[in-house]
Amino acid sequence: MSLAHFDDLNSNYSHSEKQQALTRLDLEFLRMLTGGEGLVLDSEQKHVKPRLINPVEYFFENIPKYDNTPLSLETLIKDINNPGIELLYEKLTDTLKKIPSGMHFDKNEGPTGYNKGLATFFPKTAKSNNFYSAIQDILDFSTNREQHSKAYRQVRNNVVDQLKIETDSGKWGNPFDYLNNKLPHTEVGKPFDHVFEEQLKIQSNTKDSTRYNHFMYLFVTLDTYGFQRDKKSRNLIIDSTHAFYAAHCDYFVIEDKKAYHKSKEVYKKLNIETMVLNPEEFIAVVKGNPAIQPRKWTNWFELINNTIENEEPLLNGENDEKNPVLIYSINPKYFDFFNRMQITRHDEYITASFYKKVDNYSTFFFWQEIETLVKCIVNHFGSSDFNMESLSKAEKEQINTDQWKGRFWFLSKESTVHLTLREGSPGPMLNFKINMNATDANSH
Predict the structure, then answer these.
(1) Average pLDDT over residues 32-61
(2) Model confidence, pTM
(3) Which of 152, 298, 320, 357 has the maximum number of C-beta atoms within 10 A of its C-beta?
(4) How far apart are CA 63 and CA 23, in angstroms?
(5) 272-300 average pLDDT score
(6) Cα distances (angstroms) measured from residue 48 to each of 2, 51, 203, 211, 250
(7) How far, in Å, CA of 58 to CA of 2, rounded?
(8) Residue 56 in contact with residue 28, Cβ under 8 Å?
């Protein structure tokens, strides 16, 4: 769960009793589905942090409810309920109606598509070109979501028409390659990558953009140039926020086809290995992927030997103590979690360390992940030194403060297993310490 889920619910929220009841049901389902695990964006650092959230309490206490009530100068003055102010307002209104807005809606002026787009943003001013009408249009735009979407669609469509971009984005292939090849031969005169980086620096108002800005602008700009065009600007923003939070996870399950395709392309562009799946694909992955479906795990000794004998190491080197180190990729994941194995040779023993290499934005983990892992390992090796599957309250607090000492399994006199936190990187590590005279006779 993330703040994007709350924004999504808030976009259709109303204060009617029926709507509030339905929203509460959605929030309770979200709590049941996630166990309260949530992702929150630090608004100052633009950095995502994990947090335990009660969805119902958080939504109704922290999320401002959107008010779509139209604003006008008349209603603002009437709310003051002062006859003197009303008289002053009438005189002011007469004056504002006599002042030209300064906008030009003549079709012979401005660049191609300019006047049509301007009239979309300022429809009342286009009919009655004065300052009073311009103020009314601005108030309408600030409170009317449909007006936002209409104006955005008009501007986007003008861009697509003017640059003669292929309207069927399904024919583009890789959208970034298409735009990099297309835009230099248009009025833009530069590849998409150059335009995007320039715009990003302006938007972020800093020399280097944040990860959040980088992702959000890339997602939205794809739509602006016509790739998988969204009908509503509000949906586009919410979809981009969902995709950003999901970039911190292993899977992003999304039913919206346009968001599905945009997310896949942005992830590919930024080398984010989060899998984008529709519900049917996700079910198929869960049912058919041996790395996810619960199963009987390979004997650990055989796994280590077979990997060393049959796989090419990703890295062959030494650690700081000059001990030989080999690193291998593990597929399927060991215990549904570990995708890397590091073999380190010492004088009297060998350590095989399993860990998870993360290829997305995640720099954190939840204690629930470790508890699930502990249960899986206990089911395979038997009880640990703590003689319990679940984590104690003290262990949870230790994990949250990076002070957890881990769990031990004593497989034999020659072999021990230690599940602990990985130093220097987020997440757990499973260490097998094997004496040189160890055999697999007593291994599980």
Answers:
(1) 82
(2) 0.77
(3) 152
(4) 13
(5) 77
(6) 10, 10, 20, 10, 15
(7) 11
(8) yes
